[in-house]
Amino acid sequence: xxxxxxxxxxxxxxxxxxxxxxxxxxxxxxxxxxxxxxxxxxxxxxxxxxxxxxxxxxxxxxxxxxxxxxxxxxxxxxxxxxxxxxxxxxxxxxxxxxxxxxxxxxxxxxxxxxxxxxxxxxxxxxxxxxxxxxxxxxxxxxxxxxxxxxxxxxxxxxxxxxxxxxxxxxxxxxxxxxxxxxxxxxxxxxxxxxxxxxxxxxxxxx
Length: 206
Known about the structure:
By secondary structure, the protein is an alpha/beta fold. It has helices at residues 10-18, 80-90, 164-174, 178-188, and strands at residues 22-26, 37-40, 49-50, 65-71, 91-102, 128-131, 147-155, 196-203. An eight-stranded mixed beta sheet has the order 3-2-1-4-5-8-7-6.
């Protein structure tokens, strides 16, 4: 039996009451991003709110969030499409959504039994009608969403000692263009695994 109970921080309740455009972090953990209201499934840091992201964000009004940030959280979400709809609903027109998630080639990603999905270059295009496009056409299944994909960055971790300089140069080459990103993911990712992908989206609303 679930014992979950929504618990909002005093700071978040204050900003909601004041109608202040919110900056929220989904899954802030023990090191929440400064200047953001952190949501997590349990109380892990002072000032964070206890929020079950699998349920909804119904305590937030439409068009109330100017910036949403998530770092290594969406891979734990069973109902990602539903959460993306909620993010879109609460976002202001022109709002920013930043998402960091493990790249599918990350070998450590498979060790965590709470991970339910992996991500690649194309993943956010299934929610974005405009912006960066790849050589393979992507269908946006949920026509009620209208995000623009503004940036995709593949990030690497220096897996081997002394590889820091090589990793930095290789990351720079991979992210030169959509073409080099696609070439990396298609032909090189099995040999030189990435750590994560950063997606930056903006919210398109009338």
